[in-house]
Amino acid sequence: MNVLTPGEPFNVSPDRTTAGGDRPPAVEVLSAEKVFSNGTRGLAPIDLSIADGEFLTLIGPSGCGKSTLLKLIANLIEPSDGRLLWWRGDFAQVGEDGRRFAFVFQEPTLMPWARVDANVRLPLELAGIANAKTAPAVAEAIERVGLSKFARHFPRQLSGGMKMRVSIARALVTNPNLLLMDEPFGALDEFTRNNLDADLIKLWWERKLTTVFVTHSIYEAVFLSTRIIVMAANPGRIFRTMTIDAPQPRDEGFRDSAQFAAYCRELSTWLAEASLPSAPGGAL
Ligand SMILES: Nc1ncnc2c1ncn2[C@@H]1O[C@H](COP(=O)(O)OP(=O)(O)OP(=O)(O)O)[C@@H](O)[C@H]1O
Ligand SMILES: [Mg+2]
Question: Which is higher by pLDDT, 283 or 240?
Answer without folding.
Answer: 240
